[in-house]
Amino acid sequence: MKTGPRVMVSGAGAGGIGGEICRKLARDAVARGERARLVACVTGAKQDIHDLVAELGEIGADALGLAGDLADPAVPDRLVAEAVEFCGGLDGLVANAAIRSDGPLLGLAVAEWDEVFAVNTRAIWLLARAAYPALKESRGAIVAITSIAGMYPHVNFGAYPPSKAALINLCQTLASEFAPDGIRVNSIAPGMITTRKNEALYADPAYAATRNAIVPMGRVGQPGDIAGAVALLLSPEAGYITGQNIAVDGGFSVSVMARLPTRQAPPPT
What we know:
- With 269 residues, this protein is an alpha/beta fold.
- It has helices at residues 17-31, 47-59, 75-87, 110-138, 160-178, 199-202, 205-213, 223-234; strands at residues 2-10, 34-42, 62-67, 92-95, 141-145, 184-190, 245-248.
- The chain has one domain (2-247): Rossmann fold (3-Layer(aba) Sandwich).
- It is 42% helix and 16% strand.
- Strands 3-2-1-4-5-6-7 form a seven-stranded parallel sheet, with helices on both faces.
- Helix 1 (17-31) packs parallel to helix 2.
């Protein structure tokens, strides 16, 4: 079996978007007659990273689980170095790890602001910088997971929306700087997505129905919706796409005007 894509994914918890990205890359490689080499990274020693690595092996990928706190500026270099060693190079970097703070900005502590920006924005810059030599050699790609909260104001989420807005601009800046070396950099902005962390909320039928009703496509997204978009942006089929932030939200972010009350047009005479 041929060697498939060599990809590092941060924020790769088994029950979330990162874990589903790993599964998608592994399955797609098998479908092409390839064996992917995947490095799944999490913060702290979590049992589910071991479960995910085992699952990826059963799918047909070579996988390694790594742990490290991305708020520590020394960690991105270490994670990338171990990923490159395990994979024998790197074709893709998926930056999915993020943390959130709740509450109004007026009451936000400086330390909390700094931690959110360290994980959600600075760490992606450091990961990209560390992965640059390997990605230049492979003419690979970077995909960062942003948020529609980084595209539009979202109150009472603390530093999270500003950190994601900064990440969108960071990815576009990296795309411009890395393009001459054949490295593409794009980002994906998920809308409302059900994951293991919020599944209890969506278990409430009234809550789920309210959320589904405000999405033009009639449903809240699943991790697989994001994984499919990531796989596309990492693939040769997206070889001329760089510097883009793509909302994957069922049309929610562009539906504001459609929600305004309007006067029905008179019937034609």
